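Q: How do we represent a protein-ligand complex in a form that can be generated token by token?
A: Start from the inputs.
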Amino acid sequence: MQEKISKIVNMFNIDGIPVEIQKNNSGIINNTYKVTFKQDDGTLKDYLLQKINSSVFTEPYKLMKNIEGVTNYLKKKLIANNDTKHKVLEIIKTKDNQSLCVTLSDSGSVEYYRMYEYINNAISYDRSTDTSIVFHTGKAFGNFQKNLSDYPMDKLDETIKDFHDTGKRFQNLMRDIKIDPKNRAIEVAKEIVFVLKREEICSTIMSKIWSKDLPLRVTHNDTKVNNVMINKDNADYLAVIDLDTVMPGSMLFDYGDGIRSTSSHSSEDSTNLDEVYLDLELFKSYTDGYLSEMAPYLTNNELSLMGESIRIITLELAIRFLSDYINGDTYFKIDYEKHNLDRARNQIKLVEDIESKLDFINQYINQSYTKYLEK
Ligand code: GN1
Ligand code: MG
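Then emit the structure tokens for the protein with magnesium ion bound:
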């Protein structure tokens, strides 16, 4: 494996020779490696190599075109705003000036690799209980959306069709239960009933987008806490990463998913369900961070659905993990047989807890909105 990876690494336009390759295990879709180069002057420099999961992202060139467009635009915004504190992902091209290195796997399938500059002096957290880090994670995604608010949406390709169409995810689950290729549906009957009871909320956001009651914006669509690089020195954010799903969408999915992933008291696959609940201090911090950037830009309809969006996106993840379990674990990477089932149960517990706290959540969002609108 190492030998193959170093061959791929050498296809990129980088000075020096690769001296170390380390696998990085965060992220449950693509494969990521940290690669250290010894440069011609003897100093070391790190890069990030990723193998794109091409059964999830079926058109890698379109995806890279999206990322090139968005990162170039964001770089110009940083300069225009005199923002020297934050960074933008930097794509490293291949020696023949392509954004992707294409190779064949041992079984003959086509594989796509890309390289980024490594963001130094930064950490990405899978979970953090530090309210300052959570505030800055919310701020990072709010700032990302704000800076892309005038990016021409027609330049973006849809990298995964119907990605946050929760209603479609629900229908797919119904289809998967019928086919039930691994005879697992019976085992998850209780979870299926939980989802069935909530069918109605699955179409809340998308139906309002179709009726134009909610605006489409350029959104990130995967606002997991580990998709923000945090500055080691001061807990400020350095850069938003994982831009594969940047597409036209609703800010509601970004905000809701940000809360789902930063503010749960336990990790996404924890099986100790008593410890899975929405931590309100973290929720408040993320909301403040997000609204400190985005409050002036939101419509009334967006504002009024922010609380509900947390519940909807968490239900969407429960549905996706459940579908993947029923289908025999073909989408998300798993570490053990029932990993997707544990993730689904975890998200279901989180939905229940969010539901019990919705009044407080809505009240706090309004309070925070008013505070940041006045600033
Ligand atoms: C995946 O690749 P990663 O880990 O950042 C997934 C997200 C899910 C998340 C759940 C393209 O994100 O939608 O919310 O796992 N990305 C894709 O952990 O499906
Ligand atoms: Mg990621």
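The mean pLDDT is 96. Residues 27, 224, 226-227, 242 surround magnesium ion (ligand 2) (CB under 6 Å).
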